[in-house]
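Quiz preparation item.
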């Protein structure tokens, strides 16, 4: 079930994937909010994000787009896991691990914040 976050700088031909190791954050149950300088556009089930501050584009696959929308609904990570388990063929443990990694990618890229 991995959600992918890709980044591309203007003029870069191939987006590169941002990787991060899962982490166990005591604040993981906090809700996240989308950074104010980030624009979102969905295209055929996937999404393109633009960080105005960094001048950088990011691409989300279908699952990443769904998670982004759930974050935008102000759901905490556990609520996001519950929705993903309901909507996709994945168990809660795998969903939680993948979500943790994906949230870390988004945070480190400055796209979301607690």
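Solution:
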């Amino acid at each position: 079930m991995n959600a992918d976050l890709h980044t591309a700088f203007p003029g870069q031909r191939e987006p590169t994937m941002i990787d991060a190791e899962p982490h166990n954050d005591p604040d993981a149950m906090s809700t996240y909010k989308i950074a104010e300088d980030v624009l979102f556009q969905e295209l055929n089930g996937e999404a393109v994000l633009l960080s105005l501050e960094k001048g950088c584009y990011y691409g989300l696959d279908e699952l990443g787009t769904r998670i982004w929308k759930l974050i935008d609904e102000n759901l905490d990570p556990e609520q996001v896991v519950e929705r993903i388990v309901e909507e996709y063929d994945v168990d809660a443990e795998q969903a939680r691990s993948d979500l943790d990694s994906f949230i870390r990618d988004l945070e480190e890229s400055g796209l979301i914040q607690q």
